[in-house]
Amino acid sequence: MRGKLSISETVRLKAQYSDKLACEYDNFSENNLYNQILKTTIYRLVHTSDVDKKQKQELKRVLLFFGNVDLIQTDHIKWNKLIYQKSNQNYEFLLNICYLTLTGLLQTTDEGKFKLLSFSDEHMEMLFQRFVMEYYKQHHKELHPKAQQIEWDITDGQENSMIHFLPKMRTDISLHKADKTLIIDTKYYTKIMAENYKSTYRSAHLYQIFSYVKNLDRNNTGNVSGLLLYAKTDEEGLSQGNSVRIGSNTIGVEVIELNSDFKEIAGQLEKILIQYL
After folding, report:
1. Which of 202, 200, 201, 227 is nearest to 212 (CA)?
2. Is the separation of the CB atoms in 178 and 143 below 8 Å?
């Protein structure tokens, strides 16, 4: 016998006068769906016209390790059915990148050739949010990083049909340390500032983070802070580390330079914790 005995299936076999036992066991194979997605993504990038030659060489070297893994049709991948647990949690971030890459590839008129679509701000914002979340999950589990649902601060016992039509408030990232909470809203925009008669931060973003903070800090303790975290663009005139106290709460705006060494990016993310928590 191998693995765990399946009682119900064994009983069914006995009813058919079979002398076999039914077992359940894990089959550990490198030719699994997760590796197949990785190999397919690498393979398509190697055959994409607008990937740098040096990057292609690196990808080809990685591809050698996937010799026993099959290529698959990407339109058959059920992305929402992929399950991540302790044994395979390292795949999650990689497969999120695979998803963004594969959904951004177009087949060209040349057979077997692909072309990358330009990623929209929406795609990049999703990737940026996942990156920041995963960084804090990896390096600061004690802060319990998660996306948090915030309820509207409605007076107890108040009955109003309008309550049912209020939009849901869900943070990108919430970090908790003792009695303090930092709400981070990640943003990826080609232009960070809004241009009217002068340059200002986008009002909708500020109203959003302010609403999150005030509805979570119902007792006005001042222990809840909010941060708009932007990925730096080519836009000029942006200053680092702007924050202001509104009532008892701190609302801040930070800009992260992603086009730099990872140690520098990590340093900026660590500095945020020092400043706000």
Report:
1. 227
2. no
Of 106, 130, 136, 135, the closest CA to residue 118 belongs to: 106
Q: Which two tokens stand for residue 272?
A: 């945020």
Task: Give the angle subtended at the CA of 90 by the CAs of 85 and 93, to the nearest 5°.
Answer: 105
68-102 tens-digit pLDDT = 999 999 888 999 889 888 888 899 989 988 988 88
Rounded to an integer, what is the distance from CA 128 to the centroid of its chain? Answer: 7
Residue 274: what are its φ and ψ, rounded to 5°?
-65, -40
DSSP for residue 248: T
Strands 23-24 and 4-5, bridge-based pairing = antiparallel
pTM of the shown model: 0.61
| 158: region left, alpha or beta (phi > 0 left; psi from -120 to 50 alpha) | beta
The residue type found at 85 is Q
